[in-house]
Amino acid sequence: MMTMEYHNPVLLKETVDGLNVKPDGIYVDVTFGGGGHSREILKRLGDNGRLFAFDHDEDALKNTINDLRFTLINENFRYIKRFLRLYGIRQVDGVLADFGVSSHQFDVPGRGFSTRFEANLDMRMNQRSKLSAFHVVNDYDEEQLRQVFAQYGELRAAPAMARLIVDKRQEAPIVTSEQLKLVLKKFLPSRHENKVLAQIYQAIRIEVNQEIEVLKEFLLQTPELLVKGGRLSFISYHSLEDRLVKRFIRNGMFEGEPERDMFGNFEVPLKKVGGLITPSEEEVKTNNRARSAKLRIAEKL
Fold first, then answer.
1. CATH code matching the domain that covers 116-209, chosen among 1.10.357.10, 2.70.98.10, 1.10.150.170, 3.40.50.2300
2. pLDDT given at position 255
């Protein structure tokens, strides 16, 4: 029974349709959250189908589904192969992922994910993790901070922001979101304040949760994990994620191009299915989180 308030899953039908669910197949939802996508997969599975889900946020465990076909694993999906093997699973028919922060995490002020609330600097998706936004802001040196803001926030003022944070925290630690906002106020033009703040928060959040490293580790495991004809159905929310997913589907790698044979051909483990899918205007009106969502589907060759 779902006991916590989670918002509607994004691109629900399109994402699960992308898996091409077989009634007796084995599927994995690596971003369980409120369980919306998992419930839709279970509707399409028969008695012999299996669904495994991953979520390292302990809040998500309160939404677990009472179904013999379902298993919820309280771990990061970067360890997908390791934990599936504990259940005797070496290959699956499909993997679904809805990357990014859940609506619930944004809506709980104390988690520190949202620019809307005054909160302690936290931003940990896994509340057992030792690295928090407080540690990034107060313990990283100037060069580390510059890299975080430049790489993950794509902020042109990254060097100046890093320098100012290092100067200000010598007077007193920067503990709350409001304090961070005051420190960086000169970089927040009134017309674009929310946009720049969102970029700053995104950068710190990605670093805290090691989101890019986690995504790369996960993607590299998927070709071996899928059976031939198995599907990936992935929703991304920012260009850094989407670029990695797109390149991996196209080239089987994140940088450069695969080696070609003497005829100019190259082999890759996946092929894309259809084109990029984005939410309808109607869905965006009813679910604001969907506005930047991009769905890509791939199949194992």
1. 1.10.150.170
2. 84
Annotated binding site: 35-37, 55, 77, 98, 105
Known binding residues for S-adenosyl-L-methionine are: 35-37, 55, 77, 98, 105
Q: Is 207 exposed, middle or buried (0-12, 13-18, 19+ CB in 10 A)?
A: buried
Average pLDDT over residues 181-194: 92
Residue 222 has pLDDT above 80, yes or no: yes
Q: Which of 3.10.100.10, 3.40.50.300, 3.40.50.150, 3.40.190.10 would CATH assign to domain 12-103+211-300?
A: 3.40.50.150
Rounded CA-CA distance 181/186 in Å is 9
pTM of the predicted protein model = 0.88
Q: What is the DSSP string of 221-273?
A: HHHHHEEEEEEEEEEE-SHHHHHHHHHHHHHSSSSS-----TTS----SEEE-
Give mean pLDDT, residues 114-138: 84
User: Rounded CA gap, 207 and 258, in Å?
Assistant: 29
pLDDT of residue 128: 85
Give the type of residue at 275.
G
- Alpha-carbon gap, residue 96 to 32, rounded angstroms: 9
| Three-class SS state of 160 | helix
If phi over 0 gives left and psi between -120 and 50 gives alpha, with beta otherwise, what is residue 85?
Answer: alpha
